Amino acid sequence: MVKVNQMAVLQVATITLVVLGSLVQVAKAVNAWDVTTWTPSHATFYGDDSGAATMGGACGYGNLWWRGYGLATAALSDTLLNNGLTCGACFEIKCNITGGESGKWCIQSNPSIKITATNQCPPNFDRPTDNGGWCNPPRTHFDLSLNMFRRLAQTQAGIIPISYRRTRCIKTGGIRFYLGGNAHFNLVLVYNVGGWGDVMKMQMRGTKTGWITMKRNWGQNWESSINYTGQSLSFIVTLGNGQVRVIRNLTPTVWYFKQTYEADTNF
């Protein structure tokens, strides 16, 4: 009969569990849009001093001045934008002075900037990823407003090496909801979201309905086909990190489409 050393088996099992646990943790940390440690990437810029070219965009915010984002924004490559779910997230970026030849254009004091993701930097499959196809998968890339690029480097560089990390969004005031659509098709834009910034789930309720899980239409526009006319509206907002805010009775019973309503809370 073979004698088994139970203590040795227990130690092996414990080590196995620790290793497996470590692998799970690594797997959770691979999402490019969620990294909180400095991570290498590259940045370019688009538009001119007016920032007109940065308005609108894939996240659905429209006029970024009206929404409170201004020019502290960036268009993200698809690897970072995550099919639009990263819209509203904030990142800290700094120029990588030691990042080769193009690093010489970095501002020598090496400041960092904080931006909100508001647009998509589309891939250009006619160009290689290292020569014009900067936003082609699987690259991570930030296409900054000209104003923000200048805070990091001289514009002669065109493209610069950077380091980036996810950071908390600091917003003034409460979460804001722009009520678009019509009585039979509600299209709600949620913006000015603090904390992790990226809304992953939206629920809506009228005073005569239960909670309805909304469908993301595009960017941070969320839809519901329920007729809420004559009902006060409430929302549940869930971020990518799992944080939740319940906003009860955001509107009075008489409310209007094409109006913005602000909650008294944020993340």
From TrEMBL:
Domain Expansin-like EG45 residues, every copy: 56-174
Alphabetical list of InterPro entries matching this protein: Expan_Lol_pI, Expansin, Expansin/allergen_DPBB_dom, Expansin_CBD, Expansin_CBD_sf, RlpA-like_DPBB, RlpA-like_sf
Ranges of residues in domain Expansin-like CBD: 184-263
Localisation: Secreted, Cell wall; Membrane
An annotated GO cellular component: extracellular region
Signal peptide boundaries: 1-29
GO BP annotation list: plant-type cell wall organization
Membrane topology qualifier: Peripheral membrane protein
UniProt KW Signal keyword: yes
Domain of life of the source: Eukaryota
Keywords annotated in UniProt: Cell wall, Cell wall biogenesis/degradation, Membrane, Secreted, Signal
Record keyword Membrane present: yes
Record's function text: Causes loosening and extension of plant cell walls by disrupting non-covalent bonding between cellulose microfibrils and matrix glucans. No enzymatic activity has been found.
Family membership noted in the UniProt record: Belongs to the expansin family. Expansin A subfamily.
Protein name: Expansin
